[in-house]
Design brief:
The protein is mainly α and 214 residues long. The protein has one domain. Helices cover 64% and strands 6% of the residues. It is built from 8 helices and 2 strands. A two-stranded antiparallel ribbon has the order 1-2. The protein is globular, with a radius of gyration of 18 Å. It starts with a helix and ends with a helix. The relative contact order is 0.17.
Amino acid sequence: MASKLTLTGEVIKGFWKENPVLTLLLGMCPTLAVTSSAYNGIGMGLATGFVLLGSNTLIASLKSVVPRSVRIPVYVVVIATFVTIVDMLLKAYLLELSQGLGLFVPLIVVNCIILGRAEAFASKNTIFRSVLDALGMTVGFTLALFVLGAIREVAGAGTLTLFQMGETEIKFNLLGSNYIGILVMILPPGAFLTLAFMLAAKNAITQRLEKKSN
């Protein structure tokens, strides 16, 4: 039972306690830059998650044969390989999303979340635990980017976009066609303001939960 609870904890820690965006404050560059819509947030989160899952798995597999003196260069090469794969897949099958994310897909190579989990977790744990860690961090990161993008898109344009490929899209006009929109919300300052409110809300909820538990 204790083992099952520990393994479950590896997954759920990324949702709240060690959320990459709301707790660890990692990956701030793509978090603030690409979340002008909910769809971009989902896309960036899943692209990062693909790289995180692949790199965690491979690094956990190779940890016993990689000399510590060259571990960082090896990690970067592994991460860059998976970034290249996801970049090519996006350009081949989801061109609109690839164009929307732009340079921030290649920049996943230097994302602190990826390298941080490789160094702090995957290089010291089993493949299975590393996969669970990657899944938890992926879900937490994607949810944070989705919520941030959704708030900005709804406030800025009155819409919520969940998918877009060519003429096919899943888009909801939540506030009506006459909604003017708050322009600042889809501009860079809107990202900082929205993230600040999300961090404040997360901290307030955490403090309330801690008081109840005491």
